[in-house]
Structures are given as C-alpha cells and as structure tokens.
Amino acid sequence: MSMPDSPSHRAVVSDGPVQSPHPLFRLTLPALVVLFVIPALHLLTPADSAWHLSDFFLTLTGKILCYAVVAVAMDLIWGFGGILSLGHGLFFALGGYSFGMYLMRQIGRDGSYHAELPDFMVFLDWKELPWFWQGSDHFLWAVLMAILVPAVVATVFGFFAFRSRIRGVYFSIITQALVYASMLLFFRNETGFGGNNGFTDFKRVLGYSITSPATRSVLFILSGLLLIGALYLAFWLTRSRFGRVLAAVRDAESRVMFIGYRPQDYKLTAWVISAALCGLAGALYVPQVGIINPGEMSPANSIEIAIWVAVGGRGTLLGPVLGAFLVNLGKTYFTSHFPEYWLFILGALFVAVTLYLPEGLMGLPARLRALRGLPA
Q1: N or C: which end of the chain has fewer CB within 10 A?
Q2: Which SS3 state, helix, strand or coil, does residue 205 take?
Q3: What are 173-226's pLDDT values in tens digits?
C-alpha cells in the first residue's frame, strides 16, 4: 500500500528507526520541573512577593492543562485517524459530571461530612437518591465512572456510526447533534443532574478542603501528569502497528479494507480511548473551576476543541497542546477586555490557519524555510 510521503506523516507510517529523538522526550524533564515549580511558587512564597503565583494563575493554568488533554485526545482521532468530531465536549462534560456527583455528595447538610441527598435534590423535594447516583460517594467509583461513562457512550455511538460507514462531514454533523441533544437533556431538572445550574459549591475532596492552596496545587500537578501521560500514550499508539493501520485508514480506508483489515475496529478503538481521556480531563477540570453545568456540552465548546488542534497542528501531538494554551490564553484576555470581539477573533483565526497555515503552528518553521528557499 502506498502512503503519503509528507514529512508530517512519514514518521507515523514508517517502520524504520526514528533518526532523532521526538521533541516529546526532550521536553518531558523541563515540563516536569515547571509542573512542580509553579505550585512551589504558589505555596512557599509570600503573597506580596514578585515570585508569588496567584490562585487565579494556578487555576487558569490547571484548567488549560485539562483542555490540552482533550486536544491530544482529539488529535488522536482527527490528526491520525481522520475522524473529525464536533461533539467531544460531551465526553469531557460526562467525565466532569461523573466526578461532580462525588463532590456533591461530600457537601453534606447541617455541617455533616456526608449526606444521602445532594442539596439541589433536597431543594427540589426529591425523596430518595436515583439509582444512577448509587456509589457516587466513593472516590474510586467516581474516578472509574469518569472513565467508563464517556467510554461506554463512545462505544455505543461509535459502533453504530462506524459500522454504518458514516464518515466525513456527515459524521461530524451527527456528533454535533449528539452533544446538542445531550445538553438539552441535562438542562432538565428531572434528569437528576442539577438542571440549568448543574453542580457547584463544592467543599471537599477526599476530606480536604477543595479551595485550599495545597489541594489546588495537587490538582494542578495531577492535571499536568495526566497531560504527559496522554502524550506518551498517544505517541506509543501512533508509532505502533495499530497507529500505522489507523493512519492508513485515514489516507485510504477502502484499500485497507480490501487487503483484509476491518477499519471500523481501529476507528472505534481510537474513538473510545479518546473519549476516556476526555472523561479523565473533565474529572480534573471540575474541582479546579468549581462548577459543571450543561453549558460545557455546548456545540460551540466542541468546535473550539477542533480549533485548538487546527491552530497547533493536527497529527503532531505537541501542536494541539500549543494550540490549546494559545487559544485559551487569548480567550481569557479578550473576554476580559474585549468580550464582544472574541468570537470574531476566534473565527478569523480559524479561517486564517485553514487558508495560510494548514499544518498549524507546528508547520510554521518548515513553511518559513520553504519561503527562504532552504531545505526542509
């Protein structure tokens, strides 16, 4: 089977040795150092020190680390599998809701550590805990559900979608319809997920105050470690035989099928792994931002995920991380200073990258070398 010989894909499909270490390996140690230095500066320096990092900085960076995990998960299926999802915000939100259920059970009533019913159910005069809330007061169960619930939803949806050979823009539209329908469902009070307000006012996690600097620092570190783990997992998958077949499915699905492979199995596996990573990211995101509501399932949020990957450079692993940081830092600035212009800026950024930088920011050095007539 012939494969594209572009630089961005050669390393994925080649069986030969890699000539130079992947940037992921060179950046891991510096990333780990930064990951522990930031909480240290937050915890150990006085608030009036120039070296002190505020709660806002720690929370914002931790939140973007979770977004970066989602971007890596999207890159796994879009950059290497050719599957553009416009509904990945659903898996992120499902992971957040799964862990949010645990956090809600820890709020308690009348100063108690544990209450049978979350406070919003008491307000709505519910008499008993719904069956799907059983076990939600256990930390490990909540973590397991944050992985399994998105994975199961992805498995059911992906099985029928890939079996029916739905691809391209039709698949993207169906994923957006799925996330929109889920958002409308979670908005309803009778579903048992807090309705329009969702879950908020969290107090404790594993008995520790969720707002304490030490807890926030631990959540920050865990978010960074999850991102590094997601990058290594994606690197291993894409460099394995599975990854080479997945890339072949992206480039020539019919030919892969004709030589005896089942493309739907490879696409479904990558799809489910991607959903599980999003669920874990959502589970770490919720205690850091202090809220989860149906707005996280907004179709616009899922489109933003695709923009992160496109801006950074799909099929590069590190590019989506860069895109997630740059776009979300820009969003934080513009929504604070020029909120009415942010959506226009985001749309213009996406159009500009699509037209003038299709390989994303990671492809910018090669494009500059080409413009100067230098070898790639």
Answers
A1: C
A2: strand
A3: 999 999 999 999 999 988 989 989 999 989 999 989 999 999 999 999 999 999
In a domain, 141, yes or no: yes
Residue 363 DSSP symbol: G
Structure tokens at 101: 């259920």
Helix axes 88-105, 168-186, angle to 10 degrees: 20
Could you tell me if 187 and 294 are in contact, meaning their C-beta atoms sit under 8 angstroms apart?
yes
Which ranges in 79-211 belong to alpha helices (H)?
A: 88-105, 119-123, 139-163, 168-186
From residue 60, give the alpha-carbon distance in Å to each of 65, 285, 295, 299, 328: 9, 10, 18, 22, 9
Residue 101 lies in a domain: yes
If we measure between CA atoms, which residue out of 347, 312, 328, 341 comes closest to residue 72? 312
Token output for 156: 């059911």
CA distances, 50 to each of 57, 62, 212, 346 (Å): 14, 21, 21, 33
Domain-located, residue 177: yes
- The answer to whether position 1 is within a domain reads no
Using alpha carbons, select from 355, 333, 273 the residue that is nearest to residue 91: 273
Q: Which segments in the chain show pLDDT lower than 50?
A: 1-18, 109-114
Question: What is the domain count for the chain?
Answer: 1
Range of the domain at 274: 61-298
Distance CA 58, CA 37 (A): 11
pTM: 0.90
Q: Which residues pair with 291 in a beta bridge?
A: 200
Which residues, in sequence order, are CB contacts of 273 under 8 Å at separation 6+? 73, 76, 233, 237
Alpha helices by DSSP H, the chain: 7-13, 23-44, 55-78, 88-105, 119-123, 139-163, 168-186, 213-239, 241-258, 263-289, 299-312, 318-337, 342-356, 364-371
Could you say which DSSP state residue 151 is in? H
| C-alpha distances in Å from residue 170, one per residue of 228, 259, 260 | 33, 26, 25
CA 225 from centre of chain = 14
Residue 211 CA from chain centroid, whole number: 23
Residue at token pair 């308690």: 108
